[in-house]
Each structure stands twice: as structure tokens, then as C-alpha cells.
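Run log, item B.
One chain of 81 residues. Sequence copied directly from the ordering sheet:
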Amino acid sequence: MCQKFLCNLQRYLTGGKSDLSHRPRYSNCLARIPDTYNMDSIIKRTTSLEKSRVKILQEWDGNMIDINPLIPEFKEWLTPQ
């Protein structure tokens, strides 16, 4: 259940722009470091070097988010279609 929540949270927080092949788990949660490169995409040759560079899209404002609004969406995501 926790892993499913992490997957859903990743998609939600990135507006659906997260790496679809990334399967977050508590044991492998990571943060990408700005101005480094996504080596998986370089090795697999799926994107150019410049496109694989990790960029800051928005600076953190220091505020923690309230996860309560995410819970109904997560429950809906879990419900079989």
C-alpha cells in the first residue's frame, strides 16, 4: 500500500511528468541533484545530454504541504475501474 501511495504521490506532485518507469519505494527514494544528469536516460539513449540534465523547475518556499487533500484522490486511484 505504501509503495502504491508513493507512486501516486510522485505522479500527483509532478503533474504527471514523473518518470513512468521509476517505481519509488522507501528503500530507494531519492532526490535528483540539480545540474547532474539522469544517467539512465543517457545510457539507454532515450534523450539527449542536455534534456537529461536535472533542472530546478521551482524553488522550495519552505512550506510543508498538507497531505489531507491527497487522500481522497489516492483512494479513488486505488479503486478498480
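Observations after the first pass:
- DSSP finds three helices and no strands in the chain.
- The chain has one domain: 1-56+65-81.
Flagged for discussion on Thursday.
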